[in-house]
Protein 1
Amino acid sequence: MSESAGQAIAIRDVTKTYKSGALDVQALAGVSFEIAPGDYVAIMGPSGSGKSTLMNLIGCLDRPTSGSYRLDGIDVATLDDDALAAIRLKKLGFVFQGFNLLARTNAVKNVALPLFYAGVGRREREAAAQRVLAEVGLADRGAHKPSELSGGQQQRVAIARALVNNPAVLLADEPTGNLDSQTSEEIMALFGQLNAAGRTVIMVTHDPETARHAGRVISLRDGRIVADGPPAPEGPSQESPVP
Amino acid sequence: MAQFFTEAAGVLLGHRTRSLLTILGLIVGVAAVIAISVLGKGMAGAVNGVLGSLDDHSFFIFPNARQGDFSRAAFDYRDVERARRLIPNIVVAFPAGNVPRIVTFGHHRARLAISDDTNVKLAAVPLLYGRYLSADEVATSAHVCVLTNLAYQRLFPEGGDPVGESVRFADRRYVVVGVEGRPTQGILPVNFGGDISIPYTTYEAEYLRSRPVLSARFIVADPDRMAETEKAVIAYFKVAKAGRSEYQTFDRRSFSTVIDGIFAGLTLVVAMIGAVSLLVAGIGIMNIMLVSVTERTREIGVRKAIGATRFQVLLQFFIEALLLSLTGCGIGLVLGLAIGALVDRFALVAISGVVPSIPWLQSVGIAVGFATLVTLVFGTYPAYRAARLDPIEALRYE
């Protein structure tokens, strides 16, 4: 892994403009920040703040209109679709709100899917999948299909899938949005463990409780960063402090 | 790659009813085309079995059916003999035909057709007993005969070897020298001779006695020059009848031309059935693949987010379409071969006696060709649609 830039993520003056009919909608109006390897960052903001757009850019699902984006030392702002797919495969792990597991496929095969696209042989990738499943506490659930697992277990499988290719950055989009508070705590604890083990974690959430688990919170509003710092202390105020 | 196939198979098995209904058109189309091609091959075999008894050294001449006075076109031995002497390439020429007689052996009687031995030269029916007429017997107008299987059964219902026995027609006795085996009765009622063959010299002396006939047989030395010989014979007979009668000839080649024409028509029909079924089945598969892509938009988004390239997504759906097509064509192949073989077995073998060969390679070729074509033409577009889905929108799809 190249450490030439010294940063897991370096974003400079990134804008994103969508064409919506005749109208140009600016989702990001110039955003800059860096995330160091091993950071645990939450991206917060109300809907329409541009946090989903930022997430998609960080996740290499989309390209910025202007500005630069270096992921793990690679300039990814101008890559074509297939090159972006390769970056997603090698450098990123996605965890979604709705788990997004393949329904007909058991846990091991779900987890092994990224390795399949990387061209790893069946035996090897299923062994790796089994190993990662054990890491997330599901060593004995490999043969189960998603419908046979609880919501928390499904999200653990999804996390294992995100980890199986040993990504530089783990990206989570509202990872506890579909879970009850008890299970949410377990999943957040798991993210905490992964971060403690050196994994870079970026999480998009609208919930300050969830964001409090991160070491750093980037708050967005109207396509701009309005706050960037440690999470707000627990208290009655739900508003992020403006520095 | 194998994983792509296992996964596609899993998806298709997950929608068993839908998959089956999708490929139904393909099954029926391929089965129809293969059954008809098997049958066509069987028919060709049967016709060749029949024509096998007509060698390529012989042709017949007879009056053209489209003329006013058919009987005026009749000719006799002298006409035929003159033609043989005048026209090169003719080895044997003889008025054709037969005469019916009551034939007896002991207390068995049967009304049978007596004919000359030209038939023996034309037909390649294996002998059950004895031998064919010898050149010596022909030269000396001997009173010997070869029985067809039919005559043998009528006169010798108890069976056994009749060689050396004498049969009697009217006041003449003929010594049996051979018995023909069961002939291949073709799907076309072609009978070149009578029931009992005697030397043509004997036949001429005893029965023909220069009476006019309506047909003659010619055996040529060089079959490659048959066409010009036939033309010369037709021209000769027209001149002999002062141009008032029309004649035509008939040989294996002209017969084959007719049969080839029939098969060409059949092939065209099969090709059209094939094209229509291909189109209908292909549209069905494309439709269901488009539904499948839409249903699984979210899944496609996840796969892309995880790092699947466009090509890998394309391949996944392409292989699903390929598996559908292959399964349909495979079932159609088995079904078509079974139907074709059954009809061959119970219809063609019964009438022609020829067991046709099943065109395995051709049938498998048709099935695989259909599957490939359907997949390429109708499977590519849905797969392409899946491949170019935007992952962000696909992930948002409910």
Note: Residues 2-52+256-396 of chain B form one domain.
Protein 2
Amino acid sequence: MGLLAPWFLAGLGLLALPVYLHLLRRSRPDSKQFSSLMFFEPGRQAELRRRRLDYLALLAARLALLALILLAFAQPVLRSTAVRAGAPPLRLVAVDTSASMGYRGRMEAARRKAAELLDENARLASFDTRLRLLDRAELARLEAGGSANSFGELARALRAFHEEQKRPVEVHLISDFQRSGLPGGFAELALPEGVALRLHPLAGRAEPNWAVESVRAPGRVRHGREARVQAVIAGFHTEAARKTVTLLAGGREAARKEVEVPPEGRATVEFEGMDLPYGFTQCAVRLQPGDGLAADDEFLFAIERTDPLPLAYFGDRRSETYLRNALEAAAGAAFTLGGADWQRARAVIAAGAMPAEAELAAAVRRGTGLLLVLGAADASRGRVPVTGQKITGTRYAPRSAEGFFLASRVDRTSPLIDKAGGWEGVRFYQVIAVEPGEARVLAALSDGTPLLLEQRVGEGTVLILTSPLDGVANDFPLHPAFVALVEQAARRLVEWEDSTAAMASGEILAPAAGAGARAYEVLDPRGQRALSFAESARGAAVELERTGFWRVMRGAGRDRMIAVNADRRESDLAPVPEEALRMWPAAAAATGQGGGGAPPEKPLALWILAAALAAAVVEAVLASYYLGKEAV
Amino acid sequence: MLQRFLDPQILAGIANLELTAKTVVEGFLSGLHRSPDYGFSQEFAEYRPYVPGDDLRYVDWNVYARAGRLYLKRFRGETNTRLTLLLDRSASMGFRGRGLRKIDYARFLAASLGYLAHQQRDAVGLIAFDDEVRDYVEPSSRHGQWLKVLHAIDRAEPGRRTDYTQPFWHFQQFLRRRGIVLVVSDFFAPARDVISTVAPLSLRGNDVILMHVLDPEEVEPVLESSRVLIDMETGEEMEVSPSYAAGPYREKMRRHLEELESLAQGAGMSYYRSLTSEPLDEALRRYLAVREGRP
């Protein structure tokens, strides 16, 4: 135990300040305004009482707070005397399997080099966005994937690996060392003491490469002819060239166009009027003729053709007007409100009225979405229908503050919030206070009272808006954000979002994200199950390692098709400059040497600040208690 | 559960006056189980011939097309009642004991009664006064009237000292048609002065209800030690002992209240006392009872 800045302890003299304040404290003369003195007569003079050292507990809390802050400034540390034991080095041969390694001949060269380096004590690994330890027998089957590589992530993984091994490690990296894989700062490449780095570059210069860089296409359409596809063709380190771009739909050529790609530039191609059948169609934009890196010559995407989805509505006319207008104003008008038998609707909106709760709850468990707009009647029931959360009362905007509530805590990871601009400026005057329970709170007041909740019930999603849409309880329907909220809520309820998204290889697919969904099946591009039954049942996430079309099977018409493409960061084949490559092992060595010598010190300032925080809380509570007492 | 929102302490926390009124009335109706006796049913009752001055919105044009005469549709619970709220906004109404200010309670009361009347399509108006008429909204059942009344109630903040003589002389000019007149005040004036000033309204055929709003501390003040009290209207200061507040003051106040109630009843007016700690439903019930007795 020691102090890095002991001279700060001189500040302990400040402890006299609270004592001084508490000693000299005086009570104020006691006067009070009264409505009328017409029934009073004068009485005797009041005696004012002087107070001496008072509020001892408050004084103690204040002294402790000051003392702890001063102690934290003195930077106390705990010195450890632990010594590391030496051990024989372990050789790790790591082979880059990112998409760019698919460039002609690189993977074969990598396998040969790895075979040379693998001795009896060596371990084999592959890496792209993460490091995977492999069995030596898998070397012959190593292929380039579709992911990008990240040397920052690799360095992090190597640090963890070294920590786990607890002995020196000699790492051999076999890669094309693409420049796009370098992190923003060289510090992220730092390796700990005991890790020796050997680099084996396979690419000498920036090879020319053309790629279908991106495709913009609608995920869902109501009519096949309205699908408009826009593709960007990019050239990296290339001369001007004329390329043929083909649009494929359902495995057949739907259109073909010629495009002039400028030197090291981009060109855009547009296709319109595809003839799409109902359901999912696997589509692709393909570049011809191909080049040395085939992985980025084709961009896959999927389009679903459906009719507008009906949403059943129960409730008052005013709320219905707001909701209907918002749905009609939303882009694409993909939903219709009311008119259908509610049991056949994909989702139900209930604003103060609903069908029999037991039937509705059963429908939700089978996959029907439900938007509950709570009102005063729900507050009197004391619980939220279907989900059963406890309603503790009604919150009204206080007169003491601005006179309205704002959504201060919002979860911007949810499109319901993000696409509605974070609900900025929306004023709430009345909110039904609900205990969230298992539900995810998407928006809440500053004190945590939820405004919007999301919960999974069986296969269905339930959204709960805790402020009525009666035009009095809030001004939400008057904000443009309301249109976005209603549209996104409808999408969420029918699980429309991302239904046909295109993702990059290596990304994580989490169908359960946000609501704890259960029971779905994921089929990889070969048609094989990507999850075990147990993983499916608990809603585990899937890493999209393989390029192609993935299917997420959830039943009740809520299937998804996801096109997975090779990561386009891999299209630029420029390697890391040689000087930087030379610096990396040297920097790693320098970092390692810096860590020896003096025993490690564990700073205690954070713990002391935490104690100071606790003292501050105690002080606040006591001060508020005494103030309240004085006011009375 | 809605009933508890009639608690003025909870209402005091609501910033939006319209929401307050809506909450109170909904809670009240919930307690009544929407009894048709109180006239909330909008069930069709009868036709009556049109007379000049009737609202054309209620003319049944189908009947006119067939019979060639103008008839008005009447619904059960619908009358041509005119409610005028007289809201005292003198400085003493700004007094706050341990709960909310009297003016806030009076505003909730006025807004709730106004909302209730508006829901029944009664014509609602408002006069806010201290020693003069400060705000006047003529009773009407036209579209937008409710918001006018609501804004006028919301604007009512404690002003100067109370003087019933001057403003009540003016009221007689405003109140040409008969109806229900509801006076919300703390009546800090000699009881005889109050009644002699208000009684002419009753003599002109109005049903007058005196809503006496008081803070519990005004009725039974508790002083732990001698205190300097400052009159909110005159600024006069006086040191008062706890024994006086616990004894003679309470006796004087009790006599004042009894006298006021007795004189009000003698003058044919309805008198109701409401403490700021009490729920608002009794006031609403009192209004409906008076309203029921009207044609």
Note: The interface with chain B takes residues 29-47, 376, 379-382, 393-394, 396-399, 401-404, 429-430, 472-473 of chain A (CB under 8 Å).
